[in-house]
Design a protein that fits this description.
Pfam families: Mur_ligase, Mur_ligase_C, Mur_ligase_M
Number of helices: 16
Strand order of the largest sheet: 11-10-9-12-8-13-14-15-16-17-18
CATH class of the largest domain: Alpha Beta
Cofactor: Mg(2+)
Oligomer: single chain
Number of strands: 26
Largest sheet: 11 strands, mixed
Bound molecules: ligand UAG, adenosine-5'-triphosphate, 2,6-diaminopimelic acid, magnesium ion
Enzyme class: ligase
Subcellular location: Cytoplasm
Structural class: alpha/beta
Distance between the termini: 57 Å
Shape: globular
Protein name: UDP-N-acetylmuramoyl-L-alanyl-D-glutamate--2,6-diaminopimelate ligase
Radius of gyration: 24 Å
Length: 487
C-alpha cells in the first residue's frame, strides 16, 4: 500500500510542517522498531515510554516523515516533520486515513460498560451471521474477520490495529463489525476517527481504578464514546443502570433504552431461570434462550435492541435469539462424573461475582452448596480485591482464594489484600491456596453431588501470567483432568 503524505496529513490538525508534503509513504507506524525506508513514524508519548526519543533511530532507518508533539533539536533535511498537539489522537486519524476510512465502509457497532462487552459484541456478531451477513468482531477473546480468527491481546487494540482489522473486514466483504470499547481505549484515543453506526452501554460498576483513579473519571471515559457518536448513529443504553442516562447526556446520536424494570424501547422480563437456559419475554414476545442469569437477560436484550436498530426484521431476530449460545468462559458449565457442576466464569469484578453467585444461588434454590475459587489480578485495581473476597464469602458456602495472573506482584500479597475484606464470620469458610490448580482440585474434592463449584476470574484465558511470562493454564482443562480421574 502507498499514499501521498499530503493526503494523510490533510486528516490531522497539523500545527507546523517542516519539509515537503509531496512524498510517498509506504507504511504508517508508531513503533520505531518497524520503521523503514518511506515510513511515516508517529512519535507517541506513551504510558511507559516517550517515543520522541526514537526519532533519530527512525530517521537513520530511512523514515520519510515524522509526526510528533515536539520537533527534535536537529532536523534532517530528507525528512518531513509534522507537529501536532496530540500524537495519539493524530495516530487514530492517520490510521483511519491510511486504511481508507474502513469504519465508514461497513456498519460498526461499539459496546462499552464494565461487564458484558465481550458477551454482547460476540452475540451481535453471531446474530449478524445468522441473518446471512458477513461480519467481523474485535473482542477480549478473539478478533474475527468474517470467519477467520486471530488471537486478541487486548479488549480494544490500538487505533492502527483496529483500522487494519476493519480494512481486512471490508476487503473480506463484511457488512457489519462489532467491537468492545474499553474505558482505556476511550481515554487513549484508540477509537477516535472511527465512524460508528451504533453504541451500546451495558453497565458501570467498580473496576480499573488503578488507571482512572476515581469513579468520576471512569464514567467520563466511557461517556466520551457516546459524545463522539455521529447524529446518524444509535446510542442504546441500559436504563436500569444509573449511569445509562449520563452516558447519552451530550450525545448527538439517537438515544434508545433497554430495561427489565421500567418503560423502555426494549423491555424484557424473566419468566423462568434454569441452569441450562431461561424463558424470557422481550417486548411482549415470549422466547427460550440458552443463557442463565438475569445479567444475561440484559446482554440479550441489548443484542435484540441493537439488531432491531440495525434494521434486522424483529420477528426473525426473536427466532434467532433462541439459537445464540454462551461465549467461551462466560458461565460455562461442566458436569462432573460425581454429580456436581463446575461453572467457569470470567467474573473479575465485585459486581460480576455478585451476579454470577446470585444466579447460581437462585438456580440451586437451597438444594446444593456453592464452593467458589477466585483470585484477583496483579498490577490491576487493588481496591476491588477485598470487595471481591467479601462478595465471594458472603454468597458462597466455601471460598478458596487463589492466584489470577499475579503479573509483577507477589501472589501472597494479593491474597492478603483480598483477605482484608473478610469478616470474622467469613474466615472459617475461607481457604487460601496460592497454586490455582491445587485450589481447583481442593474445591472439587470438597464438592458433593448437587453442589456447584464456581471457578471465577479467568474464563477463556489459557494462561497464568507471572512476571511477564504467560504460562499455559486453562481452568476448563484443569477441571476436565480432575473429572477424568473421577471416572
Ligand atoms: C499501559 C497502557 O495503557 N498501555 C497502552 C498504551 O501503550 P503506549 O503506547 O502508551 O505504550 P508505551 O510502551 O508507553 O510506548 C509508547 C510508544 O513508544 C513506541 N515504542 C516503544 C518502544 C520502542 O522501542 N520503540 C517505540 O517506538 C510504542 O510503539 C508506542 O507507540 O497504548 C497502547 C495503544 O493504545 C495500548 O495497546 C497499551 O495497552 C497495554 C498493552 C495494556 O496492557 N493495556 C491494558 C491496561 C488495557 O488497555 N486494558 C484495556 C481494558 C481491559 C478491560 O476492560 O478489562 C484493553 O482495552 O485491553
Ligand atoms: N450484563 C452484565 N452485567 C453484569 N455482569 C455481567 C454481565 N455480562 C457478563 N457479566 C459478568 O462479567 C463477566 C465478564 O463478561 P464479559 O466478558 O462479557 O465482560 P467484558 O465487559 O467484556 O469484560 P472485560 O472488561 O474483561 O473485557 C462474565 O463472566 C459475567 O460474570
Ligand atoms: N481485561 C481485564 C481482565 C482481567 C481478568 C483477570 N483474569 C485478571 O487478570 O485480572 C484486565 O486486564 O484487567
Ligand atoms: Mg471483554
Amino acid at each position: 500500500m502507498e499514499k501521498q503524505l499530503k493526503d494523510l496529513i490533510a486528516a490531522i490538525d497539523a500545527k507546523r510542517v517542516v519539509g515537503s508534503l509531496d512524498k510517498r509513504i509506504v507504511e504508517v507506524t508508531n513503533d520505531s522498531r518497524q520503521a523503514r525506508e518511506g515510513s511515516l513514524f508517529i512519535a507517541v508519548r506513551g504510558a511507559v515510554v516517550d517515543a520522541h526519543q526514537f526519532i533519530p533511530a527512525v530517521v537513520a532507518a530511512g523514515a520519510a516523515a515524522v509526526v510528533c508533539e515536539e520537533l527534535p533539536a536537529t532536523l534532517d533535511e530528507a525528512v518531513t516533520y509534522v507537529q501536532v498537539p496530540n500524537s495519539t489522537q493524530a495516530e487514530a486519524l492517520l490510521a483511519d486515513a491510511w486504511y481508507d476510512h474502513p469504519s465508514s465502509q461497513l456498519k460498526l457497532v461499539g459496546v462499552t460498560g464494565t461487564n458484558g462487552k465481550t458477551t454482547t459484541a460476540t452475540l451481535l456478531y453471531e446474530m449478524a451471521r445468522l441473518m446471512g451477513y458477513k461480519a467481523g468482531l474485535l473482542s477480549t477473546v478473539k478478533n474475527v474477520v468474517d470467519r477467520t480468527e486471530y488471537p486478541a491481546k487486548q479488549t480494544t487494540p490500538g487505533s492502527l490495529e483496529i483500522n487494519r482489522f476493519l480494512h481486512e473486514m471490508v476487503q473480506a466483504g463484511c457488512d457489519y463489525a462489532f467491537m468492545e470499547v474499553s474505558s482505556h481505549a476511550c481515554v487513549q484515543y484508540r477509537i477516535d476517527g472511527l465512524h460508528f453506526a451504533g453504541g451500546i452501554f451495558t453497565n458501570l460498576t467498580r473496576d480499573h481504578l488503578d488507571f482512572h483513579k476515581t469513579v468520576e473519571n471512569y464514567i467520563k471515559a466511557k461517556k466520551r464514546f457516546f459524545d463522539l457518536l455521529p447524529p446518524d448513529a444509535f446510542a442504546l443504553v441500559n436504563a436500569d443502570d444509573k449511569q445509562g442516562s449520563v452516558m447519552v447526556q451530550n450525545t448527538k446520536a439517537r438515544s434508545y433504552t433497554y430495561s427489565l424494570r421500567a418503560m423502555a424501547d426494549f423491555k424484557g422480563r424473566v419468566i423462568e431461570d434454569r441452569l441450562d437456559g431461561m424463558t424470557v419475554n422481550f417486548n411482549g414476545q415470549e422466547l427460550e434462550v440458552r443463557f442463565t442469569g438475569r445479567f444475561n437477560v440484559y446482554n440479550l436484550l441489548s443484542v435484540y435492541g441493537a439488531s432491531v436498530l440495525l434494521g434486522f426484521p424483529k420477528d426473525e431476530v426473536l427466532v434467532k435469539m433462541s439459537l445464540l449460545v454462551p461465549v467461551a468462559g462466560r458461565f460455562q458449565t461442566m458436569t462432573s462424573p460425581r454429580g456436581y457442576t463446575a461453572v467457569v466464569d470470567y467474573a473479575h469484578t465485585p459486581d460480576a461475582l455478585v451476579n454470577v453467585l446470585s444466579t447460581i444461588a437462585e438456580v440451586l434454590n437451597g438444594k446444593g452448596r456453592i464452593i467458589t475459587v477466585c483470585g484477583a489480578g496483579g498490577n490491576r485495581d487493588k481496591g476491588k480485591r477485598p470487595m471481591m473476597a467479601a462478595e465471594a464469602a458472603r454468597r458462597s458456602d466455601q471460598v478458596i482464594l487463589t492466584s489470577d495472573n499475579p503479573r509483577f506482584e507477589d501472589p501472597e500479597a494479593i491474597l492478603a489484600d483480598m483477605e482484608a475484606g473478610l469478616t470474622p464470620d467469613d474466615r472459617p469458610r475461607v481457604l487460601k491456596i496460592t497454586d490455582r490448580a491445587s485450589a481447583i482440585a481442593t474445591a472439587c474434592q470438597l464438592a458433593k453431588p448437587g453442589d456447584v463449584v464456581l471457578v471465577a476470574g479467568k474464563g477463556h484465558e489459557n494462561y497464568q501470567e507471572v512476571k511477564g511470562v504467560k504460562h499455559h493454564f486453562d481452568d476448563r482443562e484443569v477441571l476436565q483432568h480432575i473429572f477424568d480421574n473421577e471416572k
